[in-house]
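ok, trying the design again with the full structure, not the truncated one.
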């Protein structure tokens, strides 16, 4: 029997992970004493992202006995940051916008659970919103703050772009980091970072478009004085939030004990639902899209061909929601999304072992100049990690895609453009040993296929 990456991860629950490197700054806090009950947990996504990135984390929490109704993953309306935090930009959010939205989500989770305080877990920019809420009056509502790959001292720290929230010398981060301790008393803080593989914690500016220019930050940039700071090894910017190793540290810090398992416990019956959003002008938004149709097909895992008619069909209303759809945990699926003013997007997914209400469907970005001569466009997406690390084998149709770079990973997507004569055939997408088969739909019909890896 061939071992897949998923099988290895599912078996990881019986194996101890390597111990993370512990770094503690001045006034560092200890992990809290084990509570009698784990507080409700609110998960906060990063720049340009959405709630579904936390799907596998939610499943692992559920597999360790955390009730689903005591967890929530926020969707910021406009997830992309402004280039200048003080100047309004259409479709982008300020630090104050995100602080206000997160404060409202905290209040709602407290109301729905009856809890006095909640735990917050943030990826990347989501950690900024968490720190902003806590520092500006919200500390009494928060028991724990876990910041995963958050560039707490900036993606860069220079005299350029003084009003960028990602500038370590800018007013926003200087305000958050002022004082002998960089954390707020009364809240237990944990930071998780990479040991050199985070593209937003690099001394050289090549990943922010300035190769050869010092950024003024280092791999230690996500750490905070006064927090418990853990180094998770050679994980990338997203993996320090969504990898099984990250889950272990998140759970252990909040619950005060080791998780019983790292594996995801499958359910016998799976119900899926979520939100449809779009990319107007090519920029992502988490605002609901009305009038979108969602058709779900069971597909053959070896060929990608549909097995019969749609198992679920829906049209979104004003709230952008679709579902629930009843599927089997062993089914490979195709989600066909037709949204106004967007390409028809065919999203191929490996099986869902558990139910989820955060199966977020965002239409692909519009076809661009690079696609004009393509007969078909197939995108491979690894939303919980990046491509390009030396340890990864990433293949589309048995070949490394041209836009996968070597070295420190640069993106979570890779694109294959096919000539017109190859439209209609099946494309095999592989990350290490996880495999998804997608169909090459004709770009002339404004269709894009996405092979999205669950793990």
């Amino acid at each position: 029997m061939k071992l897949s990456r998923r099988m290895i991860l599912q078996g990881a629950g019986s194996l101890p992970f390597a111990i993370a490197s512990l770094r503690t700054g001045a006034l560092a806090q200890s992990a809290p004493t084990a509570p009698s009950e784990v507080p409700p947990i609110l998960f906060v996504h990063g720049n340009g992202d959405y709630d579904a990135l936390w799907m596998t984390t939610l499943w692992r929490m559920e597999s360790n006995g955390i009730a689903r109704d005591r967890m929530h993953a926020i969707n910021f309306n406009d997830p992309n940051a402004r280039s200048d935090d003080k100047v309004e930009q259409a479709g982008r959010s300020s630090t104050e916008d995100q602080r206000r939205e997160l404060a409202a989500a905290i209040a709602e989770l407290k109301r729905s659970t009856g809890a006095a305080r909640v735990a917050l877990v943030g990826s990347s920019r989501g950690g900024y919103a968490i720190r902003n809420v806590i520092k500006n009056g919200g500390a009494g509502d928060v028991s724990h703050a876990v910041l995963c790959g958050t560039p707490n001292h900036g993606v860069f720290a220079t005299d350029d772009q003084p009003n960028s929230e990602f500038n370590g010398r800018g007013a926003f981060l200087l305000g958050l980091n002022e004082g002998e301790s960089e954390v707020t008393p009364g809240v237990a803080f944990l930071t998780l970072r990479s040991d050199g593989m985070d593209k937003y914690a690099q001394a050289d500016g090549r990943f922010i478009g300035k190769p050869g220019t010092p950024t003024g930050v280092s791999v230690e940039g996500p750490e905070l004085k006064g927090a418990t700071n853990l180094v998770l090894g050679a994980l990338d910017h997203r993996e320090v939030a969504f990898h099984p190793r990250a889950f272990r540290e998140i759970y252990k810090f909040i619950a005060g004990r080791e998780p019983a398992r790292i594996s995801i416990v499958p359910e016998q019956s799976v119900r899926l639902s979520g939100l449809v959003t779009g990319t107007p002008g090519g920029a992502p938004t988490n605002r609901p899209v009305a009038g979108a149709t969602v058709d779900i097909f069971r597909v053959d895992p070896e060929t990608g061909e549909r097995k019969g008619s749609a198992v679920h069909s829906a049209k979104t209303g004003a709230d952008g929601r679709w579902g629930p759809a009843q599927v089997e945990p062993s089914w490979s699926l195709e989600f066909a999304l037709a949204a106004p003013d967007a390409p028809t997007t065919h999203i191929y997914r490996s099986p869902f072992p558990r139910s989820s209400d955060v199966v977020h469907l965002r239409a692909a970005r519009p076809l661009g100049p690079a696609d004009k001569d393509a007969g078909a466009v197939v995108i491979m997406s690894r939303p919980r990690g990046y491509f390009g690390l030396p340890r990864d084998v990433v293949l589309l149709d048995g070949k490394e895609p041209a836009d996968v770079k070597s070295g420190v990973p640069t993106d979570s997507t890779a694109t294959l453009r096919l000539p017109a004569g190859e439209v209609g055939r099946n494309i095999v997408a592989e990350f290490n040993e996880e495999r998804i088969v997608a169909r090459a739909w004709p770009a002339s019909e404004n269709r894009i296929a996405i092979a999205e890896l669950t793990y």
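Keeping the full-length input from now on. The longest helix spans residues 95-113.
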